[in-house]
Amino acid sequence: MQTYLTLMKLLCCLLFRVVKVKCTNCDSPTVYSTYCKEHLIEHLIATVKKTIEDYSLFSHDDEIVCATSGGKDSLTLVDVLSHLNYNVTALCIDEGIHNYREHTIVDLKKFCKERNVNLRIVSFKDNFNGTLDEYTAANDVTPCRVCGVFRRKLLNKYAYGTLATGHNLDDELQNIMMNFWRGNIELAARLGPRSGVSKREGFVPRVKPLYFIPEKMVRVYAILRGFDVHFTECPHARDSFRHQIGNILNKWESDESGVKRHIMDSFLEILPKLKEKYADATTEICPECNGPSAGGVCRACSYASTLKL
Ligand code: SF4
Question: Is the Cβ atom of 149 under 6 angstroms away from ligand 1?
Fold first, then answer.
């Protein structure tokens, strides 16, 4: 049965290419799903606009800081928001990952200049006295663990107004499944197009305008819009737990089309209840940096003082 389904999928893909299926909106050939180039770009921008409006993510009076890694998602976010005339600044965190970050920064500067978007770069080195490479070389720690803690800290410290991230539909599904996998229901309650459960002191509101856009569609959009960047992947990305969960989700979707959408729809249905349940979760203030903390010294200050350099 499995082999039969795989063969059918291959056959459909071949037919799709040979017959040149037409866009459902016009006579042009499709480039992704049922969309031609023009209508895919139009659809993605319209979906982002609808998400911003439906979830009241921000308005044209707000200052939007986009967390920008230089990958296709954050660049798409900057591209679409600047196209929609929002007041956007790109914030890039330079972790100090050799042979990766230096290249993306060159591309990012050019990308933002072309769109007249301000770019701010802040580094681990300036804020934590060492690069990620230096921390991981001197300690027995996984890069993503340290990186995630330091990165969140800097985004919270340097973002003002509203912080928009380039999380797409697949990223959010990975977040949902990682939290379920680890039994972190309280953390799952903070997910959604608008992150968090309540307005917490010290936390900058985070929003995800690409929330309903699948990863593949973002990739096609970036290609069609001709982003002149190299899309270098972080050398640690494939070792991460997120990557493993992403592979599992892709396998489920390939076995049964629609699984991702079903998980997302189910999650969005229970999310208001989760947010209600954890609305009173309190935040403490870190005595070292005065930033938000789950209790006592925050993890970023704890890592910076206990890890060797
Ligand atoms: Fe940081 Fe890991 Fe992401 Fe690389 S993959 S940028 S190390 S969190």
Answer: no
Q: Where does the chain have alpha helices with state H?
A: 2-19, 37-54, 72-83, 101-114, 124-128, 132-138, 143-158, 169-182, 185-188, 215-224, 241-255, 259-277, 299-306
289 lines ligand 1 (CB under 6 A): no
Enter the tokens of residue 304. Answer: 């910076």
CA of 10 to the centre of ligand 1 (A): 34
In DSSP notation, 169-206 reads HHHHHHHHHHHHHHT-HHHHTT-SSB-SSS--TTPPPE
Q: Whose CA is nearest to atom 7 of ligand 1?
A: 144
Residue 106 pLDDT class (50, 70, 90 cuts): very high
Note the pLDDT tens digit of each residue in 288-303.
Answer: 998 888 889 999 999 9
What's the rounded Cα separation, in Å, for the pair 40 and 80? 13
Q: From the CB of 240, is ligand 1 less than 6 Å away?
A: yes
**C-alpha distances out from residue 11 to 87, 199, 230, Å:** 46, 51, 32
Overall size of the chain counted in residues? 309
One-letter amino acid of 87: N
Smallest CA separation from ligand 1 atom 8, residue: 144
